[in-house]
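During the reporting period the student researcher (J.K.) took over the structure-prediction task from the postdoctoral fellow and processed the backlog of single-chain submissions. One of the processed entries is reproduced below for the supervisory committee.
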Amino acid sequence: MSVGLVVFGLLVGDRLSALTAQILWFTEVDYLPTFWTRVQTQVWLWVGVSLLSGLFWFGHLARSDRHAHADPHPYPHPPPVDDHGHTLPPSPSSTMLSLRYLLPLVLGLATLLAWGAVQYGRLAFDYGWLGFEIPPLTPDIPAPFNGVALWKLVQGSTPTLGLLVVGIVVGVIIRFRWTVRLLAAVLVTLFGYLAANHWTRILAFGKATPFYNRDPLFDLDISFYLFRLPVLELLSLWLMGLFSLTLLTCLLTYLCSSNSLSNGKFPGFSPPQLRHLYELGGFLMGAIALQHSINTLTLVYSHRGAVYGAGYTDVMVELPWQIGLGCIALGLSGGLLYRSRTFPRQRGSLLTLVKMLFWVYFTPALLGFLLSQGIQRVNVQPNELERETPYITRSIAATRAAFGLNRIEAKTFDPKNNLTLAQIAANGPTIDNIRLWDTRPLLQANRQLQEIRLYYTFNDADIDRYQIQRYDEAGNISTQLQQMLLAPRELDYDKVEGVTKTWVNEHLVYTHGYGFTMSPVNRVGEGGLPAYDVQDIGTETDAGRLQLAPDIVPDSIPLGRPRIYFGELTHTHVMTSTKVEEFDFPSGPDNVFTTYAGRGGIPLNSWWRRLLFTLYLRDWPILFTQNLTPETRILFRRTISDRLPQIAPFLRYDDDPYLVVADVGNANGGTPNYLYWIIDGYTTSDRYPYSDPGPHAFNYIRNSVKVVVDAYQGDVTFYIADPTDPIIQTWNKVFPHLFKPLEQLPAPLRAHLRYPTDLFSTQSERLLTYHMEEPRVFYNREDQWTTPQEIYADKPQPVDPYHLIMQLPGEPRAEFILLHPYSPVARPNLIAWLAARADGDNYGKLLLYQFPKQRLIFGVSQIEALINQDPLISQQISLWDTQGSRVVQGNLLVIPIEESLFYVEPIYLEAERNSLPTLARVIVAYDNTIVMAPTLDQAIQELFAAGASEDASEDASGVIRRPVETPGPLLDILEP
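J.K. obtained the following structure tokens:
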């Protein structure tokens, strides 16, 4: 008993420390009202559902105890009584069971009870340890316990779960009353816990915003499926479990009463027992009727046949069958509840009732299943296009709407191949921003040249555009829109090794990263290395100040003291303002130290706070260290991937937060810092009717939120980027103080908003199929597209979307876009390209440029085949690719200019060990000509040189020109 109390006390203390730590953390980030809304909802759900479940279950257990047969011993149980308290005669009214039938029946029911309890327990614990930690997304609703779901659960069972089932069965047989009541107490708690983990669905249910768009099958607003139906599914899951498990425990109570297993016989069910079982059976059949109603509605997510959503068989057979079964279940529910009030005035036994249930319910259920399978195979499959055409139309329209494909503006792009040097010069912003440096070789170079110390890491490099002020050769200042690769220099404590890996270093000294590199994507430095506009840590005159390129106007890029306390690798909790100074940055052979002066962190100014975070973070030295002061603050949850889901777990976040350097006019306590992380947040759902999710976990997505995180302060701000999205409107009603309008985002940060790559990739993937809107073309996949393949570092890979600064056809100026090309299935040529715009009022607009199908437009793999088959180019590459060095073919970019297409591929040279990539050559292809040159300018000049020879040539500077006479031989080389 004392051990149990100690364990209970430790568990309560652990949960209280978690709750208190959460309150302090949400107070620090200024989102305490959001946290209280969540906690209050969870508490009410947990307590309410557990209380209702407990009252129902234990109430019926108490009733079964009153009606159970008395034991043959003198006093263990009082004699059975009826509902009015009158003692019942000892002779039962139903058939007796001998041990031959009784023992298998009890074992079977006990196994079913144990298995159901274990499965519901597993569903609850799938969401993690009981407590106040938040899952990263709203958890999925478990499938209803139909035949298919039950079989999947059986297949997914583990030996541990099997042993737990056996243990429960043994407990039921040996200590029935104790085991059943303990099981009921645990499960009613888990029912509440299961409901509490779906708090987001409950809150959205109460604030649902209509879509003003209705589904074509039931004519219900789309919001019903996204906000209402999930709650009905949760209700069904709860009631099915509660009613079925209560029925099993009460049935076992009656079967095990009167020491029936010891005596080898069960005397039979008395009338009160039968009335009780009829009542519970009526409740269960009512829950089954509710599940059939839900099954009817979820036909809009059917995977049967050639179309996603309800197809011909679903509408013509499955729909009436589910409605019919629901009506039968509802009728049986009413009949059982009626018999629970009228028995024994009406004759009948439990065995007769079971037989009736089998013939009235299970036989139609089996026949309906066989009929739907038969109709699908015999009637639909031989005539699939004719039968499914109207449903294919529904699925196409819904998928395009749910993924935003219906917002794409389609245009025709017919390459003329009439470019001149004058037109190239007129498209200076495009040419000047052709990406010669990819993130992979740049990061490799950074790790060799810019990490400076072992514990610094360049985890990622992000492409963005900046207005850069430069001095020209005459000393005048010009402003250029420049595409940049910006890589933050973060501190990765995992790289600290040896004796320096101590608790003090981890939590008090190594607290932050420092600085970043900024590289123009098109510039090449000395020796073919990347050119840096921002690099290093410290200059000759100012230690700690990042070094600018000589032609950059001082202060045109805000630098300050770029400390990174919150980022992608800041996974340790740290304490600042301690007796130990924090490492700031290296300066020659020495180190410079600092003390955090920001607003972030929670004060550790009392013993109980130190004890609290000792328990919560499981970090005992916090309590005993002598290095803390009254001004000490603790910073935790510093990684973006951990910080944001704690505040808004109902959003899905982009995999690639990107760092922005901007002066928003706020001084961060002392020396200003100008580093901010921008993260795209998505509202997603897997409940949009008829929308095909494809390989994704959702079938509806909107980029509704932009999140900004101050890399120094840790401040998190959520901005609504798509106010037309009903899901974000709903969450804005639920949490009115959480979101701000995008207009309040400071202009320097708004200028760096990008169209999200994750969203663009998702839309690009869905567009491969769902650009076809005519049902017959869609069914036959007559115009199916695919993502082109390219060779990168000798390995084939799909072409990823890439950013360009370019002037779209018909547009007055160059802009920052995200582009992705397409090829037809089984052919390597280009068929279209998709562009996402990101500047000004055009932000978020999608343009699809389709090429004429009757013309051959070289694809990525075709251009690479031309490059690799050229004898002069391949000879040069083979010469470089000798032992000890390696040639890497970079990303091949397809760049639209005017009415033409331009292809550019950088060639890198790197050592096999300690690789430091250098840009060796640039290959440019246009029309039927390929040029390889040391620089992009040389390649372009040679490509458009007047009077150039039509034969392959190589000059002394290393420029190789290769005319391609006809695409015919190329098509012979590349098999479809």
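The committee noted the following: The first helix runs from residue 2 to 28.
J.K. will present the remaining backlog at the next meeting.
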